[in-house]
Each structure stands twice: as structure tokens, then as C-alpha cells.
Design a protein that fits this description.
Blueprint: H1 2-19, H2 44-54, H3 57-62, E1 67-68, E2 79-84, H4 101-105, H5 110-126, E3 138-143, H6 163-178, E4 188-194, E5 207-208, H7 212-228, E6 235-237, E7 241-242, E8 245-246, H8 252-255, E9 268-269, H9 273-278, H10 287-297, H11 310-321, H12 327-343, H13 365-378, E10 380-384, E11 397-400, H14 422-430, E12 435-437, E13 441-447, E14 453-455, E15 466-468, E16 477-481, E17 487-491, E18 497-500, E19 505-509, E20 521-525, E21 531-535, E22 550-553, E23 560-563, E24 570-577, H15 579-587, E25 592-598, H16 618-630, E26 634-639, H17 649-652, E27 655-659, H18 666-674, H19 709-712, E28 730-732, E29 736-738, E30 741-748, E31 754-764, E32 775-784, E33 789-795, E34 803-805, E35 810-812, E36 816-825, E37 828-837, E38 851-852, E39 858-860, E40 862-866, E41 873-877, E42 882-892, E43 897-904, E44 907-913, E45 919-926, E46 936-941, E47 948-956, E48 960-967
Parallel strand pairs: 2-3, 3-4, 4-6, 5-7, 6-9, 11-12, 11-25, 25-26, 26-27
Antiparallel strand pairs: 1-2, 7-8, 10-27, 13-16, 13-24, 14-15, 16-17, 18-19, 20-21, 21-24, 22-23, 28-30, 29-30, 30-33, 31-32, 31-36, 34-35, 36-37, 38-48, 39-42, 40-41, 41-48, 42-47, 43-46, 43-48, 44-45, 44-47
Helix pairs in contact: 2-12, 5-6, 5-13, 6-7, 10-11, 13-18, 14-18, 15-16
């Protein structure tokens, strides 16, 4: 009846409009207030219910793909999930580019980050009038994956190795994106990538093994704050598996994530991930099964097959017809989608609260100012011996290095509206031109057999490389060293980089870029002193790449193509211009030499490619040494996206400043810091290790057992978590307990105004379980004038001290003494207090009750695996002798039997006391099952020795899977 009334009302409105001469300006039904879903005065749920009731089953199914089609009969426009907005709106054209996410977090300034998020949300809205291809108001940001391993290729996208800091920054950014009102969304941010996604190596087939404590205390805690604060409107499932189950079908998206908020969430898959369930992961036999499982696990929108929704909707319909799904499953997912669309104001008059925002906000003066402020606050002063910084504006300077006069963008960057390079910023600060050099060798490659040179095109669009007799600039290339033997070749003839175009090598690229970064080469020195030119584009590492990778003439005209090593051309590498010598000449006699080194974001680790080398490129280290020898007043800026080992430079140069790739205002921000118009207060959000040897395998996710991150790392860091210097000094007073936490007086004891980042850590002295050495619980960035004192209040409650108790699968605060430490970094503690907390005591284990095997206290030789394809985690023995420890077990007067649920290969489960080789009190024999998901119950008697208060060990033979057990 409501529909008929609505149609009659719309007909009347159209007729009246025609009489008034307005005609087609009133679209039929598009703004009809008779439809409750268009009434902004009604509650969101009521509007969603109304709209859902008007949709056909096919229309509801159409909402479950990334590209949701228009529904003209209801005046509903198309909708798309997935506009990238990691540090600015990306892929839609010019927009404000803020520092990379790791840089935003390095500010330790949630208030500033909320402003940045608000600006990005405004700019996403700014495109809404034109709706360019790829635009939408469901933004894929922020990234909350923890940076537990600095080798992760996507380190630039995350915030910190610490869940509390990550949660604080992601919540601030998300609040800015949403506008702060969950019922009236500026944009709808999707937090990614859920869960435990911190390696790119085989990222779709590797399993991140998370024991319950790591899952609950670490990985989930990075995602929970933003969802809990309604600063994110859903999660994106990641490509990897967790405990053997692909995250695309991780039931935690429903069972856990949705419990963190009362708001509807829109959960999406990562791009092409549904297809992986059938493809690389081989988890399901058909796409119908896979998509049905994903929907039931908590996915609402499938990102698959680009704009072609056909395969997804076909699979969903098939699942309905075969009983794998019910229409109520579709309704539930569609409801989540529509809730977001209603809250975005799509069905409100004029587009709702934010419907009037237009393109004038994009790269506005206010946003340019904010970008400069964010880039300034993000910089971290690593070293400043003898007051080398700040510099005097009256002095002369030279700015050298491969990043001195360029800005690089990353895969998820927007298009720079303008670029202030370090050289530009320093020149503007000094009001005069500055000497500069990239410090890069210019080379020519001559074929030793023919005497001809590799020659590039001279026009702006370049040309295919060929061998000619030309000895001019067309045969010269600037060779940029990015480490691990990788170089890029920029043509001296037109300033463009050489790249492979699947046929030839052409000098036509402004900078290395693309999904397959095809501008990478290696110059391989041979025994005779000649070089082979190897093509090293990212795609050559793919399993499907079978072509040769060396360059040589392939045509009569000398055009270069790919050939086998036996046919590769041998070249002499003639240095036309010595880059280091040119840089040395530039810095001689100058009051300061500023060397800007670092990474190229498309090359030194990025999505799909982890870093294999944590050091600087060798030629960059050599450049710094040469400049330092020529000018002792050398300042080094390291511009990259991750911790770097830095080699000997950390000792050799007087001043080191780190910044991420910080966007359009990089140069101005660096100049502000270098010359003292801003006092650096950025702090590191990760541990900077001295060597790769400090780290276990990148696939080892158990930070507790492997002593990862500042929480557990016992070694000597190059720079600790939370570290950063200032041009001024700060004194801390006594740490005092307050009703809501602790307070400390902080005084600026220096001559310059500055910010201090006051950090509060806790440590539990005695516990049943292994505890972090330190754990961040609160922080505050405070501004102080010279001589000024402020009382900094830091909130921390007893409940914040809880850890996950595996004996009862719950959070627990243990009674005991907790150290409270406040300071300038995790390693620079200035004030301490002891906090006596009354909580509870974890009792001894009672293994007479059914115990999940995953709730062990220690282990060796085991894997965490999927108990079933739907839910649950089991333990699998990787080899004979694998063991699980269940500490502090109360066996009483005696346990008489072992009962265990087993699957997989045939084998045994031994019960031992005291150690994996201790007293054997029973052995269960298992014949095996045909499926790893088919469990059988086995029992075995225990000897009379199974009594008392003991550590119990279960020793498994290889291939056995154990889900639960009890000692009865």
C-alpha cells in the first residue's frame, strides 16, 4: 500500500511541476518523502527496514558486489565500495597528499590526525558532484595491521608495532573521515586488513599462526578501538590465512568484530580474494561454496572481477538454489550495506549533512597548511651531536643526494597537486638558490663486441632502446642505486626512466611505478670486467614468468630486447659523470651540507613485495661518506617508509633526521625543522633493529615466544620504540597516582619552545604467564615554552592491565605489583611508581575439564590449524616429538585416563610430566581419519604417577591433529 500511495503522490508532484514550468527537474520517485527510507527524521534502522522491504531478491543480491548498480524504479543511484584514502584521496586525480601512514603515526598527535582525516573526508566528498570513475564514499582506510616486522613490504601503510598506538591513531583518522556522528557519515571508512596480515611473501597462501594470547592481546587490539569508537564502519578481510583458515571466511568478522559496536558494519573482501578461495587457496571446490561461506562468515560486499558483478551474483543465486544460503542471509548482508548508504545521506534531501561539499575543498589553502603541519610533526630527529641542528638561516647550504630534488609517491598516494622538494624548501627558507647534486653516476653502456652504445629516444615520449654509434646524451643514463643490486636508469636525453613495455625498453616513465614495477635493472659484473644488463622488474619474480631476463640486440636495427644469458650483450660501464665527485664539489665551502637519501616506494618494498634488505643502498652510504669527508658539517635526511639499519652512518654523521615520504609539502616541512622554525617532536612507532639477525622469520607471528617488538625484544636496538630527539630538553617530576590514572609535571628546561611526547608504560612484575617487558598504555603530546611546566595527566585503569588467561579463555587482571613508567621513549624512562592492584589469582589448571589444545602455555614443533572450515582452531604436529605444555596443572590424587579428539594422520599422543621427555604416564594410539576435519575420540589409561601438581606435556607424532582433550 505504501508503494501505491507513493506512486500517486509522485504523479501529482510531477503534474504540479509541469504546470509550474519545472518539468523534468523533478525525477519520478527520487525525492518522494512518502517513502520512509527517504525521511531523514526517522531512525536509521526504520529507514533501512523500509528500503529493504521494497527490494526484489535480485536487487538485494546486486548489493553484494563492489559495484552496486542503480535501481531506477526507486530513484537509487549506483554505489561503489573502495575509494583509497590511506593518506589522502588516491587514484581520482590531484588531491592533497599527506605524509604516508607511518609518518602520520610518527606525530603521536591524535588531534592532528583527526584533522587530517577530516580533510581527507572532505576531499572525498569534494569529488561527489562529478563522481569520477573509481569514486565512492566507502573509503578503504585506515590500515591497522601491526608493524611487528619492519621487513613487511607494506610497512608504509601501517602505523605502529604497538596495538595501543595503532588504535589511537586509527581511531583519530577514522573519526575525521566519518565526521564523528555515526548516524550521519561524512564518509564510511573500512579498516584493513583483518587479520594478522604482515607479510607479502605468498600472502594468499601463508598462514599467520596466532595462539590465543597473541590473537587477543595483540592483533585484535589494533582493530577494536576504531570499531568500538564508531570511527570505522567495517573491516576488509585480508588475503592471508589465520590458523589455516582464509580470512575471507574468518568467522571472527561476525562473532567478534560485530560485538565491538552496536552499529551495522559493512565488511568487504580484499580485491580478488573470493576467487582465491577456489584458486590458490583451494579451500573450496566451487565459487558457489566459497561465496556462500564468505557471506555466512560476515562478508557483505565481494570485491571480485572488477566491475563485472555477474560471477558473484550468479554464485550467490546458485547458493540459494542449492540450500547453501537462505534469503535471510542475503537480507542480513544487504541490510549492512543499506545501513551505511542511509547514514551517508544518500537518500536525504540534497545528499544530507555533507551533500553540499564540492571540489573547492580539494587541495585548498587550509589543506595545504595542514599537510605542511603534518609533515613537520612527522619528522623524527635521530641524532644531533654538538647542536648541529638547527641550522642558521644566514649560512650557505648545498642540498645533495638522490632524493634532494624530487618527491616520490607510493602505490596508494594521490596525485601530487604540486611538489616542494627538499631543495625547494631549503632554498625558500634561505631566500636564495642553493647548490645541488643528486650524487648519482651518469653512465654509458658500450657493447664490447660491437663498440655500439645503448641509446634512448630524445623526445618527451622517448623511444625503444637500441644500440647505435651515438656517443652524446642519448647514450647516457643516470644510474640510481636502490640497494640489493637494483638500479633504475634515467635517460639523460629526456629525463625519463627506462621501463619495459612487454615488448621493448622505452625511456618514457616519469618515475618507477605500476603494479609490475618495470623500471628495475641489475648491472651484473662479469669476471672479465664487463657487465650484463639484467631486467629485474617485479613481474620476473612471478611464477608465471618464464621469459629470459637479460638484454641484448634482437633486431637488425639494434633494438634491445630480452634474451637468454648466453646471448646477453656484454657492456663496459663508462662513468661519464662521477655522482659523488659532483656532490662533493657542490658541498665544498658551504656552511652546511644536507644529504637526502632513502628509498623509492615502488621498489624498496611495497604491496606484494617484502623487503629483503634493511640497509641503505651501498652507493648512498658511499655518497654520505664522501660528502662528510668534504664537509664536516653534514646533515643527513633519511626519507623512507620503514626502519633502516643505517650501518656506520649512525656513528659517522653529526645529525640524522628521518621522515617518511611526506607528500607535497615535504620540502617546506624539512626546512622548517632544519632551520628551527619547528622543533622536532616526532617519535618512532617501531623498533629500529641493528641487524636482520635480530629478527626471526617474517612468517613467525608469535611475538611472545620469539621476543618480537619492543614489548618482548631483549636485545640492543639501534633506536627504541618511542624514540625521538628535540632541540630543547625536558625534566620530569614525580609520578603521582590520581583517580583516573597518573600525572607527572614536565618542564621545558631548554631555551626553545618544543613538544614532548610523554609516554606511559606498565610492566607486571609477577604473573602466571610471560608478560611484556614494557607495554604502552597512555601518551600525550604536550607543548611547552622555555621554562614552562605542565602537569600531564595520563589515563590508565586497572582493567587496562588485563591479559588473556588461556586457562579460562577470558581477560584477567592479576593481583600484584605493576611498574608504571613514564618517559620520553620506551628506553628513556624518567619517572617510576609501583602500583598495587587487587585483581584475581589464576588458579592451577584443571585438565579434568575439556580443554582446547590451542590453550597451551608453551609448544614446540606444532602448527595452529583450522578445526573445521567454518570455525575453531586445532593443533597439528609438524613432526614426531612435537609437544604442548600445560603449566601448573592440578592432577590431585590422580588422573586415570586421557580423552582426546584427534584427526589427520595415524599416530600417538603421549602424556608426560615435567618436560617433553619426562615421566611417561600414558599413550593414546590413533588410527587416523580420511579427512583432517573428521575427528574421532580416543582414550588411554594413565598410570598412578599422573597425580599431584605438575606441568603436563602432550607429545604428538607427526601429522596428528588435536582439537580438545581432558585428563579424567
Amino acid at each position: 500500500m505504501k508503494g501505491n500511495t507513493g506512486r500517486r503522490r509522485t504523479t501529482l508532484l510531477v503534474a504540479l511541476a509541469l504546470i509550474a514550468g519545472l518539468g523534468a527537474t523533478v525525477p519520478a520517485q527520487a525525492d518522494d518523502p512518502a517513502y520512509p527510507f527517504r525521511d531523514p527524521n526517522l531512525p536509521v534502522n526504520q529507514r533501512v527496514d523500509d528500503l529493504l522491504s521494497r527490494l526484489t531478491l535480485d536487487e538485494k543480491i546486486s548489493l553484494l558486489h563492489q559495484y552496486e548498480p542503480a535501481i531506477p524504479r526507486l530513484g537509487i543511484q549506483s554505489f561503489r565500495t573502495g575509494t583509497e584514502a590511506l593518506h589522502g584521496v588516491a587514484w581520482l586525480g590531484k588531491a592533497t597528499v599527506f605524509p604516508q601512514a607511518i609518518g602520520l603515526a610518527s606525530t603521536w598527535d591524535p588531534a592532528l590526525i583527526r584533522q587530517v582525516g577530516s580533510a581527507v573526508g572532505d576531499e572525498a566528498r569534494g569529488f561527489q558532484q562529478q563522481r569520477p570513475a573509481g569514486w565512492g564514499l566507502n573509503l578503504w582506510a585506515p590500515v591497522a595491521n601491526l608493524l611487528r616486522d619492519p621487513r613487511w613490504g607494506r610497512n608504509e601503510e601501517g602505523y605502529s608495532e604497538d596495538p595501543y598506538l595503532t588504535g589511537s591513531i586509527s581511531t583519530a583518522y577514522g573519526k575525521g573521515l566519518t565526521g564523528g556522528d555515526p548516524d550521519h557519515l561524512k564518509t564510511a571508512p573500512t579498516i584493513k586488513h583483518f587479520l594478522a596480515n604482515n607479510n607479502e611473501y605468498h600472502r594468499d597462501t601463508t598462514s599467520s599462526e596466532l595462539r590465543p594470547r597473541v590473537l587477543k592481546e595483540y592483533d585484535e587490539q589494533a582493530f577494536k578501538p576504531a570499531i568500538e569508537a564508531d570511527a570505522a564502519t567495517g573491516v576488509m578481510s585480508s588475503y592471508n590465512l589465520v590458523n589455516g583458515r582464509p580470512n575471507t571466511v574468518n568467522p571472527a568478522m561476525d562473532d567478534t568484530v560485530r560485538t565491538w559496536t552496536s552499529q551495522d558494519l559493512l565488511n568487504v573482501t580484499d580485491a580478488a580474494a573470493p576467487g582465491n578461495l577456489v584458486g590458490s587457496q583451494k579451500y573450496y571446490g566451487t565459487q558457489t561454496e566459497a561465496d556462500a561461506a564468505a557471506l555466512k562468515a560476515g562478508i557483505d560486499s565481494f570485491t571480485e572481477n572488477d566491475a563485472n558483478s555477474g560471477p558473484t551474483t550468479t554464485a550467490i543465486k546458485s547458493a540459494l538454489s542449492t540450500g547453501l544460503l537462505k534469503e535471510s542471509d542475503v537480507d542480513e548482508a544487504a541490510r549492512h550495506v543499506l545501513s551505511i548508504r542511509v547514514r551517508l545521506g544518500e537518500f536525504d534531501p540534497g545528499g544530507g549533512k555533507y551533500g553540499s561539499i564540492d571540489a573547492s575543498v580539494i587541495d585548498s589553502p587550509a589543506h595545504r597548511k595542514l599537510a605542511r603541519e603534518a609533515a613537520t610533526e612527522a619528522a623524527v630527529l635521530l641524532k644531533n651531536d654538538g647542536g648541529a641542528l638547527p641550522l642558521k638561516k644566514s649560512g650557505s647550504a648545498a642540498v645533495v643526494g638522490p632524493l634532494a630534488d624530487t618527491l616520490y609517491t607510493d602505490w596508494y598516494s594521490g596525485t601530487l597537486p604540486y611538489a616542494v622538494t627538499p631543495k625547494d624548501g631549503i632554498a625558500a627558507k634561505l631566500g636564495t638558490a642553493v647548490a645541488s647534486s643528486e650524487g648519482v653516476d651518469r653512465i654509458a653502456l658500450k657493447n664490447t663486441a660491437t663498440g655500439k652504445y645503448v641509446t634512448a629516444g630524445t623526445g618527451d615520449s622517448g623511444a625503444a632502446l637500441k644500440e647505435t654509434a651515438d656517443t652524446g646524451t642519448a647514450s647516457q643514463f643516470d644510474a640510481f642505486d636502490w640497494g640489493s643490486g637494483i638500479v633504475t636508469l634515467r635517460s639523460a636525453a629526456n629525463g625519463k626512466y627506462v621501463g619495459y613495455n612487454w615488448s621493448n625498453f622505452v625511456n618514457n616513465q616519469t618515475q618507477p611505478n605500476g603494479w609490475f614495477v618495470q623500471q628495475q635493472f641489475k648491472l651484473e659484473r662479469q669476471d672479465d670486467g664487463s657487465y650484463l644488463l639484467r631486467y629485474a622488474g617485479y613481474e620476473t619474480g612471478e611464477s608465471w614468468w618464464s621469459n629470459p631476463v637479460y638484454l641484448g640486440p634482437t633486431g637488425d636495427d639494434g633494438t634491445l630486447g630480452l634474451v637468454g644469458k648466453d646471448k646477453a650483450a656484454h657492456y663496459t660501464k663508462d662513468v661519464v659523470r662521477d655522482g659523488a665527485a659532483e656532490a662533493v664539489a657542490a658541498v665544498k665551502g658551504k656552511d652546511t651540507a644536507v644529504v637526502v637519501i632513502g628509498s623509492m616506494p615502488a621498489i624498496n618494498g611495497r604491496e606484494a613485495h617484502d623487503r629483503t634488505d634493511m640497509g641503505l643502498a651501498p652507493s648512498q652510504e658511499a655518497l654520505v661518506k664522501a660528502v662528510r669527508a668534504a664537509n664536516p658539517k653534514t646533515v643527513v635526511i633519511v626519507e623512507n617508509s620503514y626502519p633502516t639499519t643505517l650501518g656506520a652512518l649512525q656513528k659517522e654523521v653529526p645529525a640524522l633526521l628521518w621522515t617518511t615520504h611526506a607528500g607535497q609539502e615535504t620540502g617546506n616541512a624539512l626546512a622548517d625543522v632544519l632551520y628551527g622554525d619547528a622543533n622536532p617532536a616526532g617519535r618512532l612507532t617501531q623498533t629500529w633493529y641493528r641487524s636482520e639477525s635480530d629478527l626471526p622469520s617474517i612468517l613467525d607471528y608469535d611475538i611472545i615466544k620469539s621476543d618480537r617488538t619492543y614489548q618482548y625484544f631483549k636485545g640492543q636496538a639501534l633506536y627504541p620504540f618511542g624514540y625521538g630527539l628535540s632541540y630543547t630538553s625536558f625534566r620530569y617530576g614525580e609520578l603521582k597516582r590520581t583517580d583516573g590514572g597518573y600525572e607527572v609535571a614536565v618542564t621545558n628546561t631548554g631555551r626553545l619552545a618544543g613538544d614532548e611526547v610523554v609516554q606511559l608504560y606498565t610492566h607486571q612484575r609477577v604473573s602466571r604467564d610471560k608478560q611484556p617487558l614494557k607495554q604502552l598504555k597512555a601518551f600525550a603530546r604536550v607543548s611547552l615554552k622555555p621554562g614552562e611546566t605542565k602537569t600531564v595527566r595520563l589515563k590508565v585503569r586497572p582493567s587496562d592491565l588485563a591479559h588473556w588467561d588461556v586457562t579460562h579463555s577470558k581477560w584477567v587482571v592479576e593481583t600484584g605489583t605493576y611498574d608504571v613508567m613514564v618517559g620520553a621513549s620506551s628506553a628513556d624512562i624518567r619517572a617510576r611508581a609501583a602500583w598495587q592492584v587487587k585483581g584475581e589469582t589464576i588458579p592451577s589448571r584443571d585438565l579434568s575439564k575439556v580443554t582446547r589444545a590451542e590453550n597451551f602455555d608453551d609448544y614446540s614443533g606444532i602448527e595452529l590449524v583450522d578445526e573445521s572450515k567454518v570455525s575453531g582452531t586445532a593443533v597439528a604436529a609438524s613432526a614426531d616429538g612435537a609437544w604442548l605444555k600445560f603449566a601448573d596443572t592440578r592432577l590431585g590424587s590422580g588422573a586415570s585416563s586421557l580423552t582426546a579428539r584427534l584427526a589427520g594422520a595415524s599416530g600417538t599422543v603421549e602424556v608426560r610430566l615435567g618436560s617433553p621427555t619426562g615421566t611417561l604416564v600414558g599413550t593414546a594410539h590413533f588410527d587416523g581419519t580420511s579427512s583432517p576435519y573428521t575427528y574421532e575420540t580416543v582414550t588411554a589409561p594413565l598410570t598412578a604417577a599422573a597425580k599431584g601438581h605438575r606441568d603436563v606435556y602432550l607429545v604428538l607424532s607427526g601429522g596428528v591433529r588435536l582439537s580438545t582433550f581432558s585428563l579424567g
